[in-house]
């Protein structure tokens, strides 16, 4: 079922000054790379600028050591940047086997609003691999986050949950038609001493 507030593509497109618009295709979780490869193999490159899914760095503890790994940030969401969403929409429906990878039988091709696109571009922070890198945070003596470098830098005030020992924070944001808690990996910089 479609979530409330989602905008299935219906021939409308936002006007976005300074670049191509982003659209998102909802697919089965875990099939992001398979779908991306299918699209890049079957769609003429002139129809779109980029096709990608967003990943993030995350720190896990393994045998007492901190290990950084990369995971899918928005499972089931594949992004396409294009000036011609209608052409891509109909071309996708022609690709054999593609409908089996869609989340529902009805193709879900959603517009990404300019505000959502700005937010996602902030997180990606011009990373060529579309990976949301770890943000370095500065803490006070009580482990309150004072500031951040990297993807989190503009969103410190939107943190709704923090797990410093587990190296992540959650921010709350309206995205793809619903309010979401979004996990961002962190690493700690130097603690800032209290001024007395």
Could you please describe the fold and organization of this structure?
The protein has 196 residues and is α+β, with helices and mostly antiparallel strands. The longest helix is centred in the N-terminal third of the chain and has 11 residues, at 32-42. The radius of gyration is 19 Å and the shape is elongated. 16% of the residues lie in helices and 36% in strands. It has a five-stranded mixed beta sheet, with no helix packed on it. Strands 2-5-1-6 form a four-stranded antiparallel beta sheet, covered by helices on one side. It has helices at residues 32-42, 85-94, 114-124, and strands at 21-26, 50-52, 55-62, 65-72, 77-82, 109-111, 131-132, 135-139, 145-149, 159-163, 168-175, 178-188. It is built from three helices and twelve strands; from the N terminus they run E-H-E-E-E-E-H-E-H-E-E-E-E-E-E.
- Taken in chain order, the helices and strands follow as EHEEEEHEHEEEEEE
Radius of gyration: 19 Å
| Spatial order of strands in the largest sheet | 9-8-12-11-10
User: Which percent range fits the helix content?
Assistant: 10-25%
Structural class: alpha+beta
Number of strands: 12
Q: Summarize the biggest pleated sheet.
A: 5 strands, mixed
| Overall mean pLDDT | 84
Uncertain segments of ≥5 residues (pLDDT<50)? 1-18
Please tell me what the overall shape is: elongated
The proportion of strand residues reads: 35-45%
Q: Alpha-carbon distance between the termini?
A: 56 Å
Helix run count: 3
Protein traits:
five-stranded mixed β-sheet; 16% helix; 3 helices; 12 strands; alpha+beta; 196 residues; disordered N terminus; four-stranded antiparallel β-sheet
